[in-house]
Automatic annotation (TrEMBL):
It comes from Aspergillus ellipticus CBS 707.79. Residues 137-148 have a biased composition (Pro residues). GO terms for molecular function: flavin adenine dinucleotide binding; N,N-dimethylaniline monooxygenase activity; NADP binding. This is FAD/NAD(P)-binding domain-containing protein. Keywords: FAD, Flavoprotein, Oxidoreductase. Transmembrane segments: none annotated. Residues 114-157 are annotated as: Disordered. The keyword Nuclease does not apply.
Amino acid sequence: MESVDLVIVGAGWHGLAALKTYRQVHPTATIVLLDSASSVGGVWATQRLYPGLKSNNMLGTYEYSDFPMDASFGVQPGDHIPGEVVHSYLQRYVDHFGLMPCIRLDTAVTVIERVDGDGDGDGDGDGGWETIQTQPQPQPQPQPPKSTPPNSSSPRV
């Protein structure tokens, strides 16, 4: 079983900020951030984006204080930030601060339990937490329902 100092669940805005800040304060700590998505971003992960999606935030109001959203992101003052730009910004934040080695994507946390002692069953130690993670298997994409022809005898709901 792997032992770490800190587990963070979720690679959205707050999870990434927690990871970066904890690494600054405790540079020798072993930290792992787990997320079930295949990319960072939380609600802004690539699989959750769709054409035309924009945040309800404007340039300058949705960024980390230590990593400004500069002109390279292509958002003009007064414009709402497009979803793909928010995702790109969060990915660049991860890259800029070298956070990716601590991040495990496609990993769902299914259980978090308190364990007595140090987890080895002998009762000595300060206790801790145990997480159980799973690597999700590819799921078939849902298909739209088949429509019933207009003059069909099938019941309608």
